[in-house]
Amino acid sequence: MPINEWTEALAADELPDNDIVGIKLGATKVCLARVGGDIYAINDICSHFYTRLSSGELYEDELAVQCPLHDSKFSLLDGKPHSEPAEKPVETYAVKVEEGTIYVGPRV
Ligand code: FES
Q1: Model pLDDT, residue 1
Q2: Could you report the per-residue pLDDT of 14-69, keeping only the tens digit for each?
Q3: What pLDDT does residue 2 have?
Q4: Is residue 58 part of a domain?
Q5: 34 alpha carbon – ligand 1 mean position (Å)
Q6: Is the CB of 45 under 6 A from ligand 1?
Q7: What PROSITE patterns does the entry give (predicted)?
Q8: How many domains does the structure of the chain reveal?
Q9: Ligand 1 pocket, residue 3 CB under 6 Å
Q10: Minimal CA–CA distance to 64: which of 87, 88, 83, 45?
Q11: Is the C-beta atom of 12 inside 6 A of ligand 1?
């Protein structure tokens, strides 16, 4: 589900480096990831079946999150699956940090 405006997501210190956190913004479940200080946001629901990607594993070197159910990895950059069985990408979102708070917004 799209996010149409910048939305307060999480205190930045609640997302440690090299970690992922699942949050809910309205009706949209979002997987936040921090790698090397950079923060990424993708839709948290796997495009293959209904599973939360934030319950999976972060691969920092690939900038990807692995689905816990059937192991497809999704790019944090563009949401595309790196491996089967998933074939469709997940949505990605813009991220900004202001005064210690992470905001998630529409991809431009
Ligand atoms: S549910 Fe994610 S790869 Fe199947």
Answers
A1: 66
A2: 999 999 999 999 999 999 999 999 999 999 999 999 999 999 999 999 999 999 99
A3: 76
A4: yes
A5: 22
A6: no
A7: RIESKE
A8: 1
A9: no
A10: 83
A11: no
